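Box 3.1 A note on notation
Throughout this textbook, protein chains are presented in two layers. The first layer is the amino acid sequence; the second is a token string describing backbone geometry. Keep the layers aligned when reading.
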Amino acid sequence: MGTLTHEFIYRSLFEYQTETKQFYTNQTHLHIIEVQNIWCVTSYTHSIQNYNTAILFFHIIAPFCANLFSALFIVFRIARQRSVSQNRSTYRQHIHQQFNEQKQLLISPVILLILSLPRLIISLLPGCLKTTDNLWLYLFAYFISFTPAMLIFVTFVLPSEMYMKIFKESVTSYRRR
């Protein structure tokens, strides 16, 4: 939270009128419609822009690295413990077996990184654009940022055999009721 305090300092409201339409409902009544948009805009100095870009990358790359290194640590630690206690298989075979058993731990950080890329790209786009032309594009871009939260099931449950087994058992027991 402390890394984003500059956002509050440099944030301001930007108001602009996009278009004025005039039309007649009949011969005597003139209707004028003014469309006005208000955006929350940030304008940074060059050094703050560089800091903001670094923070954006840090907030995406740091959790990815932490999750990936934790998963690799778990895989190699379990493989080492099993190779010491079970001499039938080599250390390499135990590593391969652990990669197969713990693949959800390795797949999940990669999926979360891929799902975070649209948010990163959108936040790095410079300047202001006329929103009335591509309103659906901006709305779609806004909702893309929620994709990782919406795909928790796909990210964590589907790659895991254990979670899928428990999920299937839960669905089966729910259907029996």
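The mean pLDDT is 76. The radius of gyration is 26 Å.
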